[in-house]
């Protein structure tokens, strides 16, 4: 997320955020979180630290964080982002970035209502807009829209997050994981 936001103007790409529900993707594809495999979790810790240093993004993670990550539901946050996408899409990037920072850098909750509203405030949303979007998260319209965007990701072949679909020369290209950005840049000629 952070690197794509940084490179969008350098690569001259039209970056579009699409909220998706990770739990739904994992369930529908039969995928399991990488941290569930002890050796993969051990490697992932090292890899995330290397990636954070290389890309100069504020990620800090330890073995204890895997349980926090597995315990935290992102559903309410994704529904909130979906509600914003449906009403005020110009806030998608700052809102997504603030959720990312809160969860991955600050290790703070993103699932409780007061925390979602705090993130919205930091992203520049007015209290009125935030409250309206928060009231929408339980509506069938928002739930259906999130299911649609998650199903769309599945159609492109997504099986987890982060998933990036680059439409280039009329063809979609799926990239999974933050370690595929060099391949993405190659496909788009950057």
Radius of gyration: 17 Å
Name of the CATH architecture: 3-Layer(aba) Sandwich
What's the CATH superfamily, by name?
Glutaredoxin
Give the SSE string.
HHHHHHHHHEEH
**Name of the CATH class:** Alpha Beta
Fold-level CATH name: Glutaredoxin
Give, in spatial order, the strands making up the sheet with the most strands: 1-2
The main pleated sheet reads as: 2 strands, antiparallel
**Mean pLDDT metric:** 93
What is the percent of helical residues? 55-70%
Count of discrete domains: 1
Q: What are the segments in which pLDDT stays under 50 over at least 5 consecutive residues?
A: none
Protein name: Glutathione S-transferase kappa 1
InterPro entries: DSBA-like_thioredoxin_dom, GST_Kappa/NadH, HCCAis_GSTk, Thioredoxin-like_sf
Pfam family, one: DSBA
Enzyme class: transferase
